[in-house]
Write a structure and sequence with these properties.
eight-stranded mixed beta sheet; 14 helices; four-stranded antiparallel beta sheet; alpha+beta
Amino acid sequence: MKNDLDFYKNIYKNRLPLTELLKDESLFSSVPKNWSIVITDIQNSTDAVAKGFHNNVNLCATGSIITVLNTLKSIDKSIEIPYFFGGDGSTFIMPDTLVKPIISALNNYSTHIAKTLKLNLRVGFIKVEQVYNNNITLRITKLRHNKYLTTPVILGNGIKYAERFIKNSFEVIPNIKGQNIKLNLEGMECRWDEILPDESSKKVICLLVNCDDENKQAEIFGTIMNEINYIFGDLDNRNPISALKLKLNTSLDKIRKEMHVKLGKHQNNYLINNWLITIFGKYYFKFFKAGKAYVYKVSQLSDTIMLDGSINTVISGTEKQINRLQILLDDLESNKKIIYGLHTTHASIMSCYIQDRKEKHIHFVDGTEGGYTSAAIFVKQKIKDLANL
């Protein structure tokens, strides 16, 4: 059983380009049957984004990840699990033994979010064994992007199946009797301004690509990532989070929103102390060597590409580059190999989980005006149109 608990922890960190990783499916391992997929999803997130609450949607999704990671840390600091940020929700893969306390903590967080942000965060899970019983695969490996950032990479339709199953069968799961897991959002921070691309001619692109053919996923995703590299450059060149453009928002309103979500109440000490820290941080990041090093790490630790059985990426590029990419995407889609959604906007937004400022900080990136959620609207409409043919 210990081996299963350490399954993800023991996966080798592949130090090669993503395009090369996708050429060798032997580097991927099937997730153990005694693990589960846990999903959080904001109900009617499209409506919330349309009403201008995209920052709340992002903050809610970020908080669900922080809730899980803090709960996991309180249970066993040595266990590692893969997770994915989706803009309007999040996905986790974990041993079955962790599901009950994690679901309990997420339901507690869901209640908190309903009160503070007036959003309905749905929570559910499905056993990996059930996914396999439906002849669907779920294979995983790790990709080391740089010396600071390593992320999971998934092939197979396991997560997409889990999302459909859970969204169709969501039920409110009460907190487990005898367990009183308090809300723990320690480390949540949301203090960056909207982040503009490093050149005025560039836009921010949120791209979602689905490929339902499990046998062709690696090949097709590799083709698309090759084209992205060719058109936009490598990860550093297309990263929408430029250290030169990072700027703290020092307004009291920004800190007040973070406090409201994190604590669920007004607390003068929190508001004033963190406001003063943020004002100092503005100068610390600009003039101090250690501050400049931290800002550089933020750009390196920003998760801007996810492969969870689909491609989810936020990149920056010019209109000409976007049009060139769409030529390939349209061709693949017309040949029924993929379905994609693409949302362009003027800037990125970023929320953060800060465990310590030296090494352990994680940054979740999306586009403004809905980002991933807006891109997903196109995917959902295309799937609906195909079903009606």
